[in-house]
## 1
Amino acid sequence: MIIDIHSHLYKIEKVEEKLKEIIKKIKCEKIVLAGIEGNYWEYILGNEEVIKIYKKYPSFVIPFAHFRLGIDKKERIDKFLKIGFKGLKFIGPLKNYDDEEYFPIYEKAEKENLICLFHTGIVSRKTAENKQENISSSRMRPVYLETISRNFPKLIIIGAHLGYPWYEEAVEVARVNPNIYFDLSGPCIYSRNYEFFKEIFWIDNKVLGENSIIKKGKILFGSDIYYDRIPAYINDIKKFFERIGCKDYLEKFFYEVGYSILKRGGII
Ligand SMILES: [Zn+2]
């Protein structure tokens, strides 16, 4: 079985059928679908569509609402809760993720036990022509999650893409802070060689190995790609963990870590 902690509803034809199909095909027990609002991420559907799909398929869909840091008011979270959202998705903040302006939002999320999924790392550009003055990847560096974790120790924090390309920062932040996890979606497993990951994960490290993020169970599966590409991606992930000598971690990666997070979030 699989738990997918990071997916979306894509603007593709027959998205509902394709979603149901992939769930069956990969034996996915739960899938987090995060809405993305605004014009920039034009290939992903928004909060409204996500909640509609959730109402139709509550057995396997977990709806996350896009909360726009710097634009949305804290009160919006109450509306999200009322209509059934189980978590929040953050991307494209107007200030650094750990700016104190956002603390009341994290405080509220912690109080309501809402799991928070943060985009971390570089943000891709889909349309080079348009001005996108409000996007800065540097505001989404993984290290900012540390401040949030220390101030809101019960908040469940998931960073996306292992902070690509700031992997070491992400790995250390997850290793040190009990409530921070990362998914490996995006270019991660293809972007560096196996030796690099073995080194930063402390796989063969005789002195530090016991405290590696693998031992601590801090990375988990999120797909964040079009559904038809997921099966090939799953195979590549299996190969990745084999090649870095962590075949035993696969069960945890695909299921157990996600399950424990969803349980702590009161979702299962
Ligand atoms: Zn995503």
## 2
Amino acid sequence: MKETIRFRLNGQPKTLKTDGDRKLLWVLRTDLGLTGTKYGCGESLCGSCTVIVDGEAVRTCQLPMSAVQGKEVITIEGLAEGNAIHPLQEEFANRGALQCGFCTPGMIMNAYGLLLANKRPSRGEIVEGMEENLCRCGAHQRIVEAIEAASRRV
Ligand code: FES
Ligand code: FES
């Protein structure tokens, strides 16, 4: 059934008439053209579809739109401030913390959520916080280093 869903997306108010069961991932990618959020497994297992909802990293492939009502959503497209990319984006690029790049938006959004909860995580806390985000290219070591470096800057 179609519902009117009001929420904030990357700082802007949004009102959509959509099926309340439709998953946020498809609204972002297909309806709104925000293709930075990636479809990996579709089963909440890989983390490639991660965004921030009310300050917490959330997987969107299983998240119904009805759960987004009244919430604040931030996607990878919303991290830059003007022309300045976020330190996490910069450190991922500088340290080559990616290979194919498919997992990268989900990695960065999960790391962003991690740093919101804990500004100066230890290496162990970063590893623990990121271990359920999968990277088939095996860039984990550099991903952890990039997050560590970004945490010293935010
Ligand atoms: S696509 Fe959502 S967790 Fe894999
Ligand atoms: S960089 Fe290719 S899956 Fe992570």
